[in-house]
Structures are given as structure tokens and as C-alpha cells.
Amino acid sequence: MKGKAAFPFLFLDADWTLFDFQRSEGKALHLVFQEFGFPYDEAVHARYHEINSALWRGFELGTVDKKDLQRTRFSTLLAEQGLPGDPDAINARYLQLLADNVFLVDGAVEVCAALAERSTLLLATNGVSWTQHRRLANSELAPFFRYVATSEDAGSQKPEAGFFEYALAQVGNPDKRDVLMVGDQLSTDILGGAAAGLATCWYNPQGLPRPADAPRIDFEIRRLEELLDLA
Ligand SMILES: [Mg+2]
Question: Does 207 lie in the same domain as 169?
Fold first, then answer.
């Protein structure tokens, strides 16, 4: 089957690209709040999301490490809501629930199934290693990914060069022209992929405008199905 693909190797981002992270996050948060006996509503999710996003931006800039990120998102949220509890224990349970409540972006299964027929797929993610492996295993995407590169295993994260070196080594260091990096984040997936010498595809489901300082974007898609025509 191989040989017909424009890109024999596809590196695919996980969250917000293949996984419907918003839905998984809300479900896991709701469940963990229920288990700890805390009141929950959509405002809690919205505030958690703001806190967590700010911490992830710090992580991408290298100003926050992952352990701090995981503790601080819950210690901040609990303090604001006036709730008691051990943020580390809550985070640990949240990660389990996140891994067990997987929702996929529309078309992800069909698209990955078709792509895996002709290309080697690697999941390229800055997520927590244990969580991301378990989420993949719990999803219908598992049969299509022989390779997973997490930032934790790589020892560096997107957009750093070390992450892409690790991912390329996983699949046997192919010619970089044969590799397409697909993801929703310009600051990590696309910036890092372009800097590593890979072709890049920006998954932009909301049709956001391209910022003036955007990294090199070789392809842009609004639906995952469009990958079938270009990859
Ligand atoms: Mg993403």
C-alpha cells in the first residue's frame, strides 16, 4: 500500500487535532469534582480552562515545569472556589479520568484509518506520557499509531528541536521531506515542525486568520478529511 503517499510519514498532534480535548477536559473535571464532593458547573470548567491555558503557555515558554503546572492549576482553582483538598491528589485522579474519557474530533477515525494504509503515523504530543498513551489505547485510533512521541519521553517539548529529533528517530530518521507535521498550534506544532525542516499543515477548524508573524505553513486545512487529498 505504501509508495502512493505524498508524505510517507505523518506526525499528528493529539489534543485539539485528533482528540476533542474540550469535551474530555469538561467530563474529567466534572467527574473529579463529583468524587471529591465539590459543586460543579460550566463556570468552574471555564475558569479551570483559563488557569490551565495560562500555565501551558508558561510551560511552552519554559517558565513553568510540568509538575508545577499540574499542581498549580488545581491549587489555584480550589483556592478561588474556597474548596479544601490536596491539589496533587485531585490532579492525579483528574489525569486518570481524562485518560478514560476520550472523545475524538469528527472524522479522526476514518481519516487516520485511511492514512495508515499508506503512511506511517506518529502521535506527536506535549501531553503527559502516561495519560497520552492511555488515552490513545482507550480510543479507536490505537490501531493506526505504531509510534508515539510525548514531550516527557523526548525530554523536550514542541517546538524545541529535541522533540522533533526524538520523533524522527522513533520512525528511523527518514528524509525530512517525507515527513508532514499536522497540528492546531502555530506556536508549537507548526513553528517546531518548520524549524525542524518538516513540511507543515495547520489544522485550523475555526478558520482563524494567519498572524503576521506565523511560522512557515505549507498547508492549511479546516477539516481532517482534507488531509486525505494532500498527504
Ligand atoms: Mg493541539
Answer: yes
The parent domain of residue 224 ranges over: 9-19+103-230
The per-residue pLDDT for range 103-132, each reduced to its tens digit, is 999 999 999 999 999 999 999 999 789 889
Q: Are 181 and 199 in contact (CB under 8 A)?
A: yes
Tell how far the Cα of 197 is from the centroid of ligand 1, in angstroms. 20
What CATH number did the domain enclosing 164 receive?
Answer: 3.40.50.1000
Residue 218 alpha carbon to ligand 1 centre in Å:
18
Give the per-residue pLDDT at 131.
Answer: 86
Amino acid 4: pLDDT? 67
Global pTM reads 0.86
* Domain contains 63: yes
Q: Which residues of the chain have pLDDT under 70?
A: 1-4
Q: Are residues 122 and 64 in the same domain?
A: no
| Whether residue 116 is found in the same domain as residue 180 | yes
User: What is the sign, positive or negative, of the torsion defined by CA atoms of 213, 161, 156, 19?
Assistant: positive
- The alpha carbon of 14 and the centre of ligand 1 are apart by a number of angstroms equal to 6
Kindly list the protein residues that place their beta carbon closer than 5 angstroms to ligand 1, a single-atom ion: 13, 15-17, 184-185
Active site residues: 13
Residue 73 CA to ligand 1 centre (angstroms): 19
